[in-house]
Amino acid sequence: MDSADISNVVLVTVDSLRADAIETDKRHTPVMDSLAERGTVFERAFATGNWTPFSFPAILASQPVFAETGRIGVDESTTLATTLAEAGVSTGGFNAANGFLTSHWGYDDGFDEFEPFVASVGSSIYSRYLATHPTVEAWLQLAMSPARRLGSWLRGETDDRPFLDTSRMFDVEHAATEFIEETDSPFFLWVHYMDTHTPYVPAPRYIREVSSTLLGTHRMLHAHTRTGLGLEVGERTLADLRTLYQAATRQIDASIGRLLETLSASGVEDETAVVLASDHGEEFQEHGHLAHYPKLYDELIRVPLVVDVPGTEGRRVEQQVGLDAIPPTVAGFMGVDAPPEWEGDSLAASVVDGVSPADEPVVSVTVRGEEVTAQPIPRALSGGDLLVSVRDRGWTYIENVDDGSTELYDRPSDPTQQDNLAKDPAATHQQVIDRFSAVVGEHASMLRDRAEQDIEAVDDDLGARLEALGYR
Question: For position 74, which CATH number holds?
C-alpha cells in the first residue's frame, strides 16, 4: 500500500488528553482502543509544550512555538491546511471553542471551511476575553447546567444535550459530519475536542459508564468550585475530578465513533486515514497542581498519537517522536510534498511499511512567570523564564534557561519523575546533562534570535488586548 491509496485524512485532536487516559481501562474508550489495535501507536509521542498555543504550531505547521515571530500562533507559518489546499485538497477545520485556535492566531489559514465556535475578536472587552480564554463559555454553561438539564427534561429531550453544548461537542460533530457528507475527495478534516479540558462537564450517562459511584451535577459544581477558588483538594475531590475527566474522555470516544460511522456511511472509510493526537496532557497533583500549568513532566508532555491507515498492519512504535511529525505525515499520505521550513519528519513509512523513525530527542518548551499558578498563558517569549526539556528513550532533562536550574530524571526507574538526579549528579548523569544542555542551548538561541527580530510587532499587536484583560 502507498499514499495513492489514501484520498482523505481526518485529524482528531483532543485537548488535555493524557496518554494513559486511553490506556487505563479499554472499556472506557472502545473507539480509540479499536483505532489503536488496528493502527499504529507511537508509544513515546511527546508534545512540544504544556499549553495549546505552545503545542499547536507543531501539530498544524510542523514548527516549534515562537519559531517564526517570538509570539504564539501560526499566522507567519506555512500551515498544513495551506499546503494541502494549494495541492487541490478540500479542507475543513472545526474547533470546540478554544480561543487559542482561532483566526486571530492564524489557524484558519488554508481552510475552505473553518469554524472555531467562539466569538471572534472584536472591539468589546468581552469578545477579546473570549478570544484568549478557551473555557470561559464552558464555566458559564457549567453554572447553568442544572437549569438547562431541567429544561431539556421538560421538553422531552435527552439529558445529554446541555452537557454536549457545554463543550461545543454537538456543534463540532455536526459541522464535521456535514463536511464529510458534502465534500468530494480528496479532503482533509481537522476536529478539535475540548471535553477533557477543565472544567470537565460530561453527560451523566458517561459518568455512569466509567464509575459505579453516584456523581451528579452538584458534585461537579462542588469539585470545580473548590479548585476554582484555590481551596484544598482532598482525596474525594481529586477522585471526583478524575472520574469526571475519564467520563469526558468516554464522551469524546463516543463522538469519534459517530464520525467514523459517517465515514463508513459516506463510502469513504476505506480511503481515509485517521490520526488521533492530543496537544498536551493533564496533571492530577503528580507535581502538586491540577490542570496544565507551566511544567514539562510526562503527565503534561507525553500524549497519545495513533495513526490508522486502512489496509495496514497494526504496529506499536517504541522510538520517541514529536508532534511536529503530524503535518509531513498527513501530507505524505496525500502525496503532497512537505515545505522545506517544516521541521518534523514524516512517519508515513513507519505506518505503512514498519520503518523505524529516527529516534531523535524531542524538545518541549514552556514559559513560566514568577508564580506557577498565577499567570496568564504567555503570548510571547518575553512572558517569563524559558524552560526547555529534552527527552530520549530513557531520560528527561529540564532546564530553566534563565536561572540555570536543571532537572534530570531516569524514566525507566522513575516514571513519575520525582527523583531529580541533577541535584547531585554522578559522572554518568553529568554526561547526560552536558549532552542535553547543549541541545537546550541551541534551541533557546534559535527561539530568541527570531524573537528579537519581531519584538516590536508583539508589543504593537497584542498590547491593547492584554491591557484590556488586565494582564499588563
Answer: 3.40.720.10
Work out the angle between the directed axes of helices 169-182 and 235-265 (0-180°, nearest 10): 20
Measure CA 281 to chain center. Answer: 7
Answer whether residue 451 is part of any domain.
no
Number of H helices, E strands in the chain: 15, 15
Quick one: CA dihedral 332, 335, 336, 339, positive or negative? positive
Query: Could you tell me where the beta strands, DSSP code E, fall in 160-208?
Result: 187-193
Omega of the bond prior to 186 within 30 degrees of 0, cis?
A: yes
CA-to-CA dists, residue 333 to 42, 146, 377, angstroms:
17, 46, 34
Phi and psi at residue 397, in whole multiples of 5°?
Answer: -120, 130
User: Residues with Cβ < 8 Å from 38, sequence gap 6 or more?
Assistant: 308, 314
Residue 306 carries which side chain, given as an amino acid letter? V
Q: Which domain holds residue 236?
A: 3-362
Residue 368 belongs to a domain = no
CA–CA gap between residue 36 and residue 329 (Å, rounded) = 17
Let me know how long the chain is.
472
Per-residue pLDDT tens for 178-236?
Answer: 999 999 989 999 999 999 988 787 877 787 788 766 555 556 666 666 665 555 677 77
| Assigned domain for 261 exists | yes
**Which residues face 191 on adjacent strands?**
12, 94
- On the CB side of 376, how many CA atoms lie within 13 Å of its CA? 18
Chain centre to alpha carbon of residue 383: 21
Local structure of 305: helix, strand or coil? strand
**Residue 393 included in any domain:** no
Please write the tens of the pLDDT for every residue from 332-363: 999 999 999 999 999 999 999 999 998 899 99
Per DSSP, the residues of 201-254 read ---HHHHHHH-SS---HHHHHHHHHHHHTT----HHHHHHHHHHHHHHHHHHHH
Q: Give the count of domains, the chain.
A: 1
